[in-house]
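Per reviewer request, we include the raw input and output of the structure prediction for the construct analysed in the revised manuscript.
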Amino acid sequence: MKAIMYERTGASSVLVLRDRPVPEPGEGEVRVRVAVSGVNPTDWKARAGGTYSTPLDGWHVPNQDGAGVVEAVGPGVSGLGVGQRVWLWDVAFGGSEGTAQEAVVVPARKAVPLPDSETFDAGASLGIPALTAHRALTSSEHGPARLAKGTLEGRTVLVTGGAGAVGHAAIQLARWAGATVVATVSSDKKASLAAQAGAAVILNYRTQDVAAEARRVARHGVDVIVDVNLAANVGADLAAITTGGTIAAYAGTSDEIVAMPVRQAMAKNVRLQFVLTYTVTDQQKADAVAAVSAALADGALRVGEEHGLPLTRFRLEDTAAAHDAVERGAVGKVLVDI
């Protein structure tokens, strides 16, 4: 079978197309014939060397997310069968096998049934973005541990960067759970995408006072903020948040420092929650996977420009270009057709 692989970290040019044997699933594993691989910032950052502190010990296949069809089932697996359509999560985390290949063996729990009504594109767009968004939305001490219909009824959520992949998923999940969603964007085009995703109010942070406008929607302040750029937004976040509210930050660079007015945060009893989906607890991950699956089954996590998440496609052999597109900040979701 064909796979995109790299044996040293660096620029996207380290990615090469290779032939390798088809793997066999072991105890508790399934082999999935990958239809579509999803690319996230974490994928190019790992390839570039941001994840590994020492030289690689062999060949690695990039990309965490994907969707495809189960084609082999190992001993001890129940609930999954050959021919079943699935979406995949955290495939490359802690190992060397990602989804940028024709088939991949994963623990059965990482292959989640994909409804017949949903596309492989939707399945490959979940993973990192949707699971991150779920953790951010459930990080409040006053909120549910697992989202479901109505669990955020009466609450207001502010999503910064509403046209990004995580922002898009956060809007859709929060709306599905009953929240009123305010989203920030930087252009009219991105405003249109956030509206199509389901945000009730869209603010251009370049031209509008985000905190003041958010408080027009929620007079006492927003309950949860899902933040893509805490260092830049902390002042507006603290002005917009309600007393006892939660700011969930899910992105940042390795050398980024946040300066926060401590007294202002104390006065509001603000919770600041940092989110990295790879290192949440097993229960938090299980809750996220279950909630995302339920939202998907309800048709609440659609993709494509008409749903606020434009898709940019590449062939398997052009995975390096797909990584470059994400690194350059491509709007929407970058997919690799396997």
